[in-house]
Amino acid sequence: MEFAEESQATPDTSSSEEESIVVNDASRGSRITLVIRGGRIRLQSFSDNSTGDNPRSSYFRDLGGVSRCGTALEYVRDNPPVYQGVDKTDIGREILLNGGGHLSKCRLSSMLRHREYASGRTSSVAAIHTQMGCRLLPNRSSLLQQDRSRIFIGRFSVKGDIFVTCCQSGKITIRRLEGRQLVPQRVIQGRSIGWSILDFAFSPDEQLAVYSSWCESLHMININESEGGENTHVSLSMSPDPHEHFCAFSLQFSSDNRQIMAGCNHGRICIYDRLRGACNLAFTGHDNDVNSTCFGDDSSNVLFSGSDDYSVKAWDRRTLSEANPTPVAVFGGHYRGVTCVAARGDGRYVISNGKDHRIKLWDVRRPSGGDVVLVSPSSLTSGGGRS
Fold it and tell me: What is the pLDDT of residues 328-360, one digit of tens each?
């Protein structure tokens, strides 16, 4: 600042170029003054009689207005940050809230309750989502398998100790959990693969498994047999007409390990009886492909199905007629195809996921009323349904 005042007091006898230099020097001095006030550098005195052996002194003497003030500048290393007491400051509390740190010891139920209470405060809801994601979602990954063909299925068994991958080429890789590693146990080449393996299901005792593709049969394999042993790989005929284009998109074993239910193309649902070696139930229950089916409880009498006709339906085998199948309940709410249905197991609740990116929980005791119009692809094509 001394240099700036000195420059202003001197009569202006220089050219316009010299005047611009004075202004630039003053501006540079102001900027350095702000840096000094920030505490990142400190001042040291040096002698004007310096011989120039110190490159630092000669450098700062050439800084225009600052050098004429008789000061030199020296950078100071930052000290290690001190976090003690930061959490008691305003910024510390703000970081704690936005990062969800105040929920670090909360159970999931408490976190959900906090989210409901904070529904009107965007920052608090974001903090809760952050904390839930850090605690509940996997955040580490490692390469398990790399194949030339696409891997369409990756599935754990119910107990979580077996993991299976199915490739588009038909290769089935079975891995077993040993310690913290999934160790390959068997590699099986699928049979009669049309385009790809579409679904894979474990039996309840995890001794058997069944897979499906674009063919008229399912295929059942034994999980626990070794490479040197006799491997089970049998075909289960599902289609009454071998020349019919048949595909099972969804598979599930019954709780007694005896029956296998399949959701198929053309809106059909089939149940295969392993003891009889044939289908004991097959009916058309939807207007489009059935993407998912599941048993409602351990009795295997209540069935649920989800289809590309946008609907979820409940069926009771005790009153079901194959010639004229009538669902005991219809649930309408998805406006795209239903991709998955899963029952709670008590025969009362079922959850569904659709291509409309929505998950819906249904109470079987409260189905859609008669005034609800199911909007399906066929109704849109024919001009029906609600706009």
Answer: 999 988 989 999 999 988 878 999 999 998 999
- Cα separation, 331 vs 355, in Å, equals 16
Give the residue among 349, 350, 320, 322 at the shortest CA–CA distance from 338.
350
Per the CB < 8 A criterion, the answer to whether 271 and 282 are in contact is yes
For 22, the enclosing helix (H) or strand (E) is: helix 16-37
Backbone angles phi, psi at 343, to 5 degrees: -95, 150
Using left for φ > 0, alpha for ψ between -120 and 50, and beta otherwise, residue 25 falls in alpha
Annotate 95-160 with three-state secondary structure. Answer: HHHHCCHHHCCCCHHHHHHHHHHCCCCHHHHHHHHHHHHHHHCCCCCCCCCCCCCCEEEEEECCCC
d(CA 100, CA 86) in angstroms, rounded, equals 16
The span from the CA of 343 to the CA of 378, in Å, is 27
Closest CA relative to residue 286, chosen from 267, 305, 310, 271: 267
The model's pLDDT over 115-149, given as tens digits with 9 standing for 90+, comes to: 666 655 555 666 667 666 666 666 677 788 888 88
At 45, list the tokens.
């005195």
Residues in a beta bridge with 163: 156, 175
Q: Does the pLDDT of residue 184 top 50, yes or no?
A: yes
**CB-CB contact of 25 with 3 (8 Å):** yes
- pTM for the model stands at 0.61
Give the highest mean pLDDT range of 25-29, 181-185, 345-349: 181-185
In the three-class reduction of DSSP (H, G, I as helix; E, B as strand; rest coil), residue 67 is classed as: helix
